[in-house]
Amino acid sequence: MNSLCKATLSLALIFCITSCAPPRPDYPIIGAKNFTEQVILGELLAQEIEARTHLHVERRFYLAGSYICNQALIAHRIDAYVEYTGTALTAILKQPINRDPQQVLNTVRRLYRQRYNVTVGPPLGFSNSFAMVIRGDDARRLHLTTLSQAAQYTPHWRLGVGYEFEQRPDGLRGLEATYHLKFNGPPRTMDLGLLYRALNDHQVDMIAGNTTDGPIQAFGLTVLQDDKHYFPPYQAVPLVTDAALRRWPQIQLALNALAGKITAEEMRTMNEEVDGQHRDPAAVVREFRKREGL
């Protein structure tokens, strides 16, 4: 085969490969992890972008945990999702635990920009920390308000956790070491949505939930105070690829509009409306946006 034929064949092959590759859609794609609060926040981000830009926004929710969402983001399979600063610091960026909210936010912003070309948007207004939760009856009977007080009882208790919490650097092992916790057998790992059912059914006696979980208030449960301040701050922040912001600069308007808009109590209420009342997350978000004048 002569050089002209080879060149022609190579050009044809390149054209075939590029033409067969799926084109990048001309609209933003918002992701979310696989639990209720994340779906609500993903929907909130999507609706606000649609309202501010008049673009269609694709939802890709239930993307497992933080690692999968981060991989999807940096591979440009999604353009944005909401993360928590403490999770980003420890689980994604592998940085030492820091308990100063502003320092954590500054570090996360700097490293996401340097490593991933990702912009960390302004905090949404609430922090969603891990919460060690027990039944309200047990808390009242034993006069428990803190994790330090609970340590003497945990050798008789069964623990329930989500899959990430058992392995994370800011998760179970460090918590056990900080409070000298011992439990009755290894922890039972399950989907986050099953933890509260297991606690109410006395299958476990303590669970690792989140401070904004709706069932805490709905079921009269007690969050034990992290009196040794083990957990870092977990401010909710949108993560958006710089490529998406260059392509659709109007997205920044949506991020600015959502800054500081959600309190922890409002997040708990929305979570309970979806989990407890089985309402559509999109409808819950629309009502929240209307109340906030968005």
Architecture overview:
By secondary structure, the chain is α/β, with parallel strands linked by helices. It has 2 domains: 163 residues, D-Maltodextrin-Binding Protein, domain 2, CATH 3.40.190; 95 residues, 3-Layer(aba) Sandwich (D-Maltodextrin-Binding Protein, domain 2), CATH 3.40.190.120. It has 15 helices and 10 strands. The strands form 3 sheets. Strands 7-6-8-5-9 form a 5-stranded mixed sheet. Strands 3-10-4 form a 3-stranded antiparallel sheet. The longest helix is centred in the N-terminal third of the chain and has 18 residues.
Order of helices and strands: HEHEHEHHEEHHEHHEHEHEEHHHH
What's the architecture of the largest domain, going by CATH? 3-Layer(aba) Sandwich
Task: Specify the biggest β-sheet.
Answer: 5 strands, mixed
Low-confidence sequence ranges: 3-22
CATH T-level topology of the largest domain:
D-Maltodextrin-Binding Protein, domain 2
| Shape, per Cα inertia axes | globular
What's the name of the CATH homologous superfamily of the largest domain? Answer: Periplasmic binding protein-like II
| Number of DSSP strand runs | 10
Q: Could you tell me the mean pLDDT? A: 91
Descriptive keywords:
5-stranded mixed β-sheet, 49% helix, D-Maltodextrin-Binding Protein, domain 2, 294 residues, 3-stranded antiparallel β-sheet, alpha/beta
